[in-house]
Specification:
heterodimer, A: mainly beta, 7-stranded mixed beta sheet, 4-stranded antiparallel beta sheet, about 0% helix, about 55% strand, B: 5-stranded antiparallel beta sheet
């Protein structure tokens, strides 16, 4: 079974703190993603990565950065946490198909971050 | 216009009912199509991929109409455990990197 593991289920951080969210996948997937999910707004893409050290901005990258030093690990960094970053954060991975397109996205269990 | 639109819901149905969800997408370059279910405060999980020929998995049937850019999910003999939010998802482009999620339709199956 594909496994995507996020380092924490629940986090509480203070405004202004630097926050690291870690994600590891064990299926050698090329693509990794960070989303946030808020009530009424659905899933919104923050950043994605298609290879080691490669990253692309998603729809809402402001206030976030990412790091992919190894293929299996994709980290999301909140440089200076703010209360409007309180949310559910979901990591996902997927693979490229030889015929074009990609596999489904496999999600981690989510990290519920509260910034106080 | 949103890229992926779904029935607004919520759907409240009795146990044993048949329920159908509809989804439309706007980007004709969409390559892959999926239905996910998401339970409250949990991560989305793949329910089924959707193919042009249609596919069935037990009580669940998915259909894709590329010409109309329309995807459907049919649940027969609904169970209490089917209560969840159902997300229609399309993947655009050649490298599987662009997932577009619908807003979801919530289903409550009532005893």
């Amino acid at each position: 079974d594909v496994k995507v593991t996020q380092s924490s289920r629940y986090l509480v951080k203070r405004t202004g703190e630097k926050v690291f969210l870690e994600c590891v996948q064990d299926m050698d997937h090329e693509n990794m993603f960070w989303y946030r999910q808020d009530p009424g707004l659905g899933l919104r893409l923050i950043y994605f990565s298609y290879d080691v050290k490669m990253k692309e901005k998603g729809d809402i990258p402001e206030g976030y950065s990412v790091s992919r030093e190894k293929k299996e690990r994709f980290s999301l960094i909140l440089e200076s946490a703010s209360t409007n970053q309180t949310s559910m954060y979901l990591c996902a991975s997927s693979s490229i198909l030889a015929t074009g397109g990609g596999t489904e996205a496999f999600f981690g269990q989510g990290t519920r971050l509260t910034v106080v | 216009r949103k890229e992926v639109e779904q029935d607004p819901g919520p759907f409240n149905v009795p146990e044993g009912a048949t329920v159908a969800f509809n989804c439309t997408y706007s980007n004709s370059a969409s390559q892959s199509f999926f239905w996910y279910r998401q339970d409250c405060r949990k991560e989305p999980k793949l329910l089924m991929s959707v193919y042009s020929s249609g596919n069935e998995d037990g009580r669940f049937t998915a259909q894709l109409n590329r010409a109309s850019q329309y995807i459907s999910l049919l649940i027969r003999d609904s169970k209490l455990s089917d209560s969840a939010t159902y997300l229609c998802v399309v993947n655009i482009g050649n490298y599987g990197q662009n997932f577009v999620f619908g807003p979801g339709t919530r289903l409550s199956v009532l005893p």
